[in-house]
Write a structure and sequence with these properties.
The protein is 11% helix and 35% strand. By secondary structure, it is mostly beta strands. The longest helix has 13 residues. 22% of the residues are buried.
Length: 161
């Protein structure tokens, strides 16, 4: 996955051992101490254990059910408020469902916007967050989802004969 990081932000390198597939932050740090956008991919073989979100059509997922499962857990968390579903959309041509909420950690509210994206290479979780103490996403994140493009993993090379 690629995205056009906002001007002045830092795209942080990720490698095959990193839990993230994409990360850009306002100040170049990797944690949640500043505004950021991050993405994780869950491979189809990992998702296979969660058959309730896998549809009959290959490489397709019930994103509404997935969001419903998240909603159930979030509503039970006393640190979460202002939960709202976002309109369905596509991200990089793939179907996506999203939601936004505020979570309080260490007494500071932080705004999150999370998107679940279904693709043939698995499920993607894309999360945008404000800096702690801010209840709105920074304006420079407006439109960043429209800049996302997908990069396919290279296919293994065939050994020489």
């Amino acid at each position: 996955m690629r995205a056009k990081a906002p001007e002045g932000w830092t795209e942080l390198p990720v490698d095959d051992t990193a839990p993230l597939d994409y990360l850009a932050s306002r100040d170049g740090t990797t944690g949640f101490s500043t505004a950021s956008i991050r993405a994780w991919r869950f491979a189809p073989e990992i998702i296979a254990n969660r058959r309730n979100i896998t549809l009959d059509e290959p490489d397709s997922y019930d994103l509404d059910l997935l969001i419903g499962n998240w909603l159930h857990g979030m509503l039970a968390d006393s640190r979460v408020s202002s939960f709202s579903l976002l309109p369905a959309r596509t991200i990089g041509g793939a179907p996506a469902r999203g939601y936004t909420y505020i979570r309080v950690s260490d007494g500071l509210p932080t705004r999150y916007e999370a998107w679940e994206v279904g693709r043939r290479d698995g499920l993607w979780d894309i999360t945008l967050n404000s800096a702690p103490g801010e209840t709105e996403l920074p304006p420079e994140l407006d439109g960043i989802l429209d800049t996302i493009t997908w990069t396919d993993a290279p296919t293994p090379s065939t050994p020489p004969t």
